[in-house]
TrEMBL record:
Stored Pfam families: 2OG-FeII_Oxy (PF03171), DIOX_N (PF14226)
Domain Fe2OG dioxygenase: 179-290
Protein name: Fe2OG dioxygenase domain-containing protein
Gene3D superfamilies: B-lactam Antibiotic, Isopenicillin N Synthase, Chain
InterPro entries: DIOX_N, IPNS-like_FE2OG_OXY, IPNS-like_sf, Oxoglu/Fe-dep_dioxygenase_dom, Plant_2OG-oxidoreductases
Family: Belongs to the iron/ascorbate-dependent oxidoreductase family.
Keyword terms, alphabetized: Iron, Metal-binding, Oxidoreductase
Top-level taxon of origin: Eukaryota
Amino acid sequence: MSVKDMASLGLKEIPGQFRASWQVKKACASNSNGPAIPIIDLAGLHGERRSLIIEQIKTASEEWGFFQVVNHGVSPQLLDETFQEQRKFFELPNLKERLKKYTIYSDKEMSQVAKMENETIRSPSNWRDNMALNYAPNLDAQKWPTEPPNFIEVTLKYNQAVYQLKKELLDALSESLGLPTSLLDDVCGEGQNTNMIYYPPCPEPSKAFGVKPHSDPNTITILTQDEVGGLEVREKHGEWIQVKPTPYAFIVNVGDQLEIFSNGKDKSVEHRVVPNCEKGRFSIGSFAAPFTTHVKPPPELTAKQGQLYNGCTYADYVVRFKKAPVFPTSGHKFIDHLKIPQLPQN
Ligand SMILES: O=C(O)CCC(=O)C(=O)O
Ligand SMILES: [Fe+2]
């Protein structure tokens, strides 16, 4: 049964597999007037504002690992249409079978990972339904949902637009690291999976997670959310900060592969989704990832400071990542397992 169907049964309590027993009650972010993740205006990215924007992206990626972008070039109309198709899809009967049928990753390892998503080793289960569409490197849109009728046409356009934005962002991030413009995209930007997500209303929101605390294993994530909210980010002092919905903005976050590539400069930070007791929430996350390359920092970034992490391929990383215990239980961010012990300075 999909989580959506379960939620529609009118349960007073969530079933046991969703119960987050290792945290009696989550400290809920209560920062309506507190700090907020930076919002960066991309207007003029190819003009005289470029150096200012790159500076802002650098600070946000180093200090927060998260930022929002506006004037990013993806039209509000396309965003509205994509959410509309997504809503229609999630209204269709036999949702669970459809989500299973259409979730496709680009290779064997990634498919294995998808199957592990809700296994008990990663318990509790996430209070959400999701479907991953593979866009690059192996576009297989002919296997995407044929209902609702405009779904493929609209979501293809959406993926194309986000893939272009991904290139712009990786180029800016590469420059922000003092590297040649296209280096980061060349090494880490080839793949894109787009995850269409629905978080149903939850009868016990303080006991379940829409998504458990995690950092993203990929390069960068480009996510858009509706007006409901629920995404929270753990800032560097350990406080949970809400990412307030900003109409037509994209949320961009640094993933583990970028932290590895940038030799620890850009930070892949923990985030989670807290469900809402009244409203369902839709979000769409596109995950840029280096499917075939071996990722390690370029020599320019290791000259002064040694290499911080062992290099790896994404496939290898992500399979091990998904098998590892969830972060707050294990006490480690998964990326810590790749840390190279540093010799004391002097
Ligand atoms: O839906 C969201 O806001 C975040 C989802 C997320 O963090 C993920 O799928 O990795
Ligand atoms: Fe995430």
